[in-house]
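All the exercises in this workshop are built on plain-text protein records. Sequence and backbone structure share a record, each on its own labelled line. The question running through the whole workshop is how a given chain folds. The record below serves as our worked example for the rest of this section.
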Amino acid sequence: MYQDLALYIDGEFVKGGDRREQDVINPATQEVLGKLPHATTADLDRALAAAQRAFTTWKATSPLERSKILRRVAELTRERAKDIGRNITLDQGKPLAEAVAEVMVCAEHAEWHAEEGRRIYGRVIPPRQPNVRQIVVREPIGVCAAFTPWNFPFNQAIRKIVAALGAGCTLILKGPEDSPSAVVALAQLFHDAGLPPGVLNIVWGVPSEVSTYLIESPIVRKISFTGSVPVGKQLAALAGAHMKRVTMELGGHSPVLVFDDADIEPAAEMLARFKIRNAGQVCVSPTRFYVQEKAYDKFLARFTEVMGSIKVGDGLQDSTQMGPLAHERRIASMEQFLDDASHRGGKVVAGGGRIGDRGYFFAPTVITDLPDDAKLMVDEPFGPVAPVVRFKDAEDALRRANSLPFGLASYVFTNSLKTATLVSNGLEAGMVNINHFGMALSETPFGGIKDSGIGSEGGTETFDGYLVTKFITQV
């Protein structure tokens, strides 16, 4: 049975009344799964008031007590992962194994923040006079507002929740209306773990209207957003107008540099399978494949072979390796990339179109012979479409990899320590993966530079956006 959908405000699940509702669609079947209630202005005001009231007591709650709740959330997450994952597959589309894995790994995020929240330390600064005492303390910033995307609905929401709550802040979170089940499940997890009313509130609605209302409220002091670059810039500008702190994890267009001396076929297979994860709807998905000239033919042959062999279907079927795209509009976007590639002389060597007429299925696609100014080389596809082009040397690869305004993730495949050092130093990206994929762990920072964002989630940096620094000097 699909998740019962509701708002979560001041410790209560709320729905019905005169609230507007929207259909939640299964992207594999296009069937309606449920009705999602939108928050009214009164609902938003109630959430703001609840979060403000709860902050008074939550910030003063012992970090050890906050830690106990986050640990209990981790336990409940593991217990309910299968059911939560199934609902993610229903409303988001990814294969069931991927959905359950998304939920399971998030238990680690809750546990890690439970421990790290107990270690938010200040410091003592030696004074210039013996009768002076100087200390620095770090305090929670206050009520926060978070906005999370549809591609990893559980993962992206819990990372913001545990960082805010672990720091002693309270939170109002607007999750993705297209794939809401995971966020409602999260509200239930925290509710059942004993979180006090008002510390976490979940609302839904028209994204631009909800975000504007919350960001403009004087109650909200910090904004966290994961999503597209254009929307992120709009929200950051609005937050800046009200002098509010932001954490922004925005889009990328991740370059892959495969050098002649790499283990070519294993790299090609690894990259193909990582590319089709969540149907390519991943902000750190490899999206621009630059392969050195001598390795190009061997890499392309294996990469194309694996991409062409992927089993596409309903995520609930055991044999499925890649599910549907999340929305009808993602299909249209893929078709635009292919149309532009065709006009630019690109050659489709695998896939190349929609599959069937029911559900939002699109074939894993490989395109070659594209110029650097083709749409697919400059705009993030956010889908299972991969351009593969040649490069000459490290200087050529770095110049092209760094040519865009994005800087989230990047990938390098080489067996040369010299090349790995040169390229990892030269890449303009917040995360550099060499010969493997090692991001998004609870203990490592996740974030980008340039247009790809501000700040990091995870790692010791995780609380930076949720804490203020206070200097106290006393005679």
Notes: The chain has a mean pLDDT of 98. The two ends are 64 Å apart (CA to CA). The CA atoms of residues 148 and 156 lie 6 Å apart. Residues 63-92 form the longest helix (30 residues).
